[in-house]
C-alpha cells in the first residue's frame, strides 16, 4: 500500500476519481460508507489533506483532529446511531500502522454501530 498522495486510494475518493457512497463532505472532510462494512453502520471519515497516519500528527494537526472527532459525533447523530442513553452508542476506531491493522495509509476514523455480532473490529 502506497504512502504517496499521487497513488493514494482515499485521496482519489476525496477527489471523486473513485466512486464512493458519500454521507457528508465539506471543504476539509469527506465521509463515505466502508466498501466492506463490518457493522450495519460503518462510515469512514477522512480529511481531504493527505496525512498518512495518526503517527504523523503533531500539534499542527490538533485543530484538524479536533474537528474530525466533532464531525464523527455529528455524523453519528445524523445517521441515528448516537449515544442517547440506554444501550445506544457507537465505536470510533483509528488504526495506525501495520501493528494497528491499518490498510489504507490516509488518516481515517471508522464510525461503527449496529447490532452485534460485527464482522470485525467488534
Ligand atoms: P484501515 O484498515 O486502514 O483502518 O481501514 C481501511 C478501510 O477502508 C477498510 O475497512 C476497508 O474495507 C475500506 N476500504 C478499502 N478500500 C475501499 C474503497 O475502495 N472504498 C471504500 N468505500 N472503502 C474501502
Ligand atoms: Zn491520501
UniProtKB/TrEMBL annotation:
It comes from the Bacteria. The active site is at residue 108. The keyword DNA-binding does not apply. Pfam families: HIT. InterPro entries: Histidine_triad_HIT, HIT-like, HIT-like_sf. GO terms for molecular function: hydrolase activity. Gene3D superfamilies: HIT-like. Keywords: Hydrolase. Residues 9-122 form the HIT domain. Its EC number is 3.9.1.-. A motif (Histidine triad motif) lies at residues 106-110. This is Purine nucleoside phosphoramidase. It comes from Paraburkholderia caffeinitolerans.
Amino acid at each position: 500500500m502506497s504512502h504517496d498522495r499521487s497513488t493514494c486510494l482515499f485521496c482519489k475518493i476525496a477527489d471523486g476519481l473513485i466512486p464512493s457512497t458519500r454521507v457528508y463532505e465539506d471543504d476539509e472532510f469527506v465521509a463515505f460508507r466502508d466498501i466492506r462494512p463490518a457493522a450495519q453502520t460503518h462510515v469512514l471519515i477522512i480529511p481531504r489533506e493527505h496525512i498518512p497516519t495518526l503517527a504523523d500528527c503533531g500539534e499542527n494537526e490538533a485543530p484538524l483532529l479536533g474537528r474530525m472527532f466533532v464531525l464523527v459525533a455529528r455524523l453519528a447523530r445524523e445517521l441515528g446511531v448516537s449515544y442517547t442513553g440506554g444501550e445506544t452508542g457507537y465505536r470510533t476506531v483509528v488504526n495506525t500502522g501495520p501493528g494497528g491493522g491499518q490498510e489504507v495509509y490516509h488518516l481515517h476514523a471508522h464510525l461503527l454501530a449496529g447490532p452485534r455480532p460485527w464482522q470485525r473490529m467488534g
